[in-house]
Amino acid sequence: MSAAEIRAEIDRCLGLVEDERFLRVVHSMLDTYIREQETEPVVGYETDGSGVSASAFVEQAEAAVATAARAGSGISAEELDKQSEQ
Protein backbone atom coordinates (compact mmCIF):
# COMPACT_ATOMS: atom_id res chain seq x y z
CA MET A 1 0.00 0.00 0.00
CA SER A 2 1.44 3.39 -0.98
CA ALA A 3 1.59 6.41 1.30
CA ALA A 4 -1.26 8.04 -0.64
CA GLU A 5 -3.40 4.92 -0.26
CA ILE A 6 -2.65 4.74 3.46
CA ARG A 7 -3.60 8.41 3.90
CA ALA A 8 -6.86 7.83 2.03
CA GLU A 9 -7.65 4.77 4.16
CA ILE A 10 -6.90 6.65 7.39
CA ASP A 11 -9.12 9.51 6.22
CA ARG A 12 -11.91 7.05 5.40
CA CYS A 13 -11.60 5.32 8.78
CA LEU A 14 -11.52 8.59 10.73
CA GLY A 15 -14.66 9.68 8.89
CA LEU A 16 -16.44 6.69 10.41
CA VAL A 17 -15.34 7.41 13.99
CA GLU A 18 -17.85 9.33 16.10
CA ASP A 19 -16.02 9.09 19.44
CA GLU A 20 -14.62 12.58 20.08
CA ARG A 21 -12.24 11.27 22.77
CA PHE A 22 -10.65 8.87 20.28
CA LEU A 23 -10.34 11.64 17.69
CA ARG A 24 -8.62 13.85 20.29
CA VAL A 25 -6.13 11.05 21.02
CA VAL A 26 -5.37 10.60 17.32
CA HIS A 27 -5.02 14.37 16.89
CA SER A 28 -2.67 14.61 19.86
CA MET A 29 -0.56 11.74 18.55
CA LEU A 30 -0.27 13.31 15.09
CA ASP A 31 0.48 16.75 16.53
CA THR A 32 3.23 15.33 18.75
CA TYR A 33 4.74 13.42 15.83
CA ILE A 34 4.77 16.51 13.61
CA ARG A 35 6.35 18.70 16.33
CA GLU A 36 9.06 16.08 16.94
CA GLN A 37 9.81 15.95 13.21
CA GLU A 38 10.18 19.73 13.14
CA THR A 39 12.60 19.78 16.07
CA GLU A 40 14.36 16.51 15.26
CA PRO A 41 14.25 16.00 11.48
CA VAL A 42 15.11 12.68 9.87
CA VAL A 43 18.25 13.16 7.77
CA GLY A 44 18.80 9.57 6.65
CA TYR A 45 17.82 5.96 7.11
CA GLU A 46 19.41 2.82 8.51
CA THR A 47 19.53 -0.33 6.39
CA ASP A 48 16.47 -1.63 8.25
CA GLY A 49 14.48 1.43 7.18
CA SER A 50 14.43 3.19 10.54
CA GLY A 51 15.02 6.93 10.46
CA VAL A 52 18.20 8.64 11.64
CA SER A 53 17.64 12.00 13.34
CA ALA A 54 19.97 14.94 12.83
CA SER A 55 21.34 14.69 16.37
CA ALA A 56 21.90 10.93 16.06
CA PHE A 57 23.72 11.48 12.76
CA VAL A 58 26.01 14.07 14.34
CA GLU A 59 26.73 11.70 17.26
CA GLN A 60 27.55 8.86 14.84
CA ALA A 61 29.78 11.11 12.73
CA GLU A 62 31.66 12.43 15.77
CA ALA A 63 32.17 8.87 17.04
CA ALA A 64 33.50 7.77 13.63
CA VAL A 65 35.90 10.73 13.51
CA ALA A 66 37.14 10.00 17.04
CA THR A 67 37.65 6.31 16.19
CA ALA A 68 39.57 7.20 13.02
CA ALA A 69 41.71 9.70 14.93
CA ARG A 70 42.58 7.14 17.62
CA ALA A 71 43.46 4.60 14.94
CA GLY A 72 45.63 7.15 13.15
CA SER A 73 43.65 6.78 9.94
CA GLY A 74 42.51 10.39 9.73
CA ILE A 75 44.20 13.14 7.75
CA SER A 76 44.76 16.81 8.55
CA ALA A 77 42.97 19.64 6.81
CA GLU A 78 46.22 20.53 5.06
CA GLU A 79 46.59 16.98 3.71
CA LEU A 80 42.99 17.09 2.51
CA ASP A 81 43.66 20.38 0.72
CA LYS A 82 46.73 18.88 -0.99
CA GLN A 83 44.78 15.80 -2.10
CA SER A 84 41.95 18.00 -3.38
CA GLU A 85 44.34 20.04 -5.51
CA GLN A 86 45.71 16.95 -7.27
Give your account of this protein's structure.
This protein has 86 residues and is mainly alpha-helical. It has one domain (3-85). Helices cover 71% and strands 8% of the residues. The chain contains 4 helices and 2 strands. The chain has helices at residues 3-16, 20-39, 54-71, 77-85, and strands at 42-45, 51-53. It has a two-stranded antiparallel sheet with strand order 1-2. The radius of gyration is 22 Å and the shape is elongated. The model has no long low-confidence stretch (mean pLDDT 90).
Largest sheet: 2 strands, antiparallel
In terms of DSSP E residues, the strand content is 5-15%
**Low-confidence parts lasting 5 or more residues at pLDDT below 50?**
none
As for the number of domains, it is 1
The whole-angstrom Rg is 22 Å
Question: What letter string, H or E per element, gives the SSE order?
Answer: HHEEHH
The pLDDT mean sits at 90
Number of strands: 2
Distance between the termini: 49 Å
Q: Please count the helical segments.
A: 4
Q: Can you tell me the overall shape?
A: elongated
Structural class: mainly alpha
Strands side by side in the biggest sheet: 1-2
Query: What helical percentage do the residues reach?
Result: over 70%
Summarize the structure.
The chain has 86 residues and is mostly helical. It has helices spanning 3-16, 20-39, 54-71, 77-85; strands at 42-45, 51-53.
Give keywords.
elongated; mainly alpha; two-stranded antiparallel sheet; 86 residues
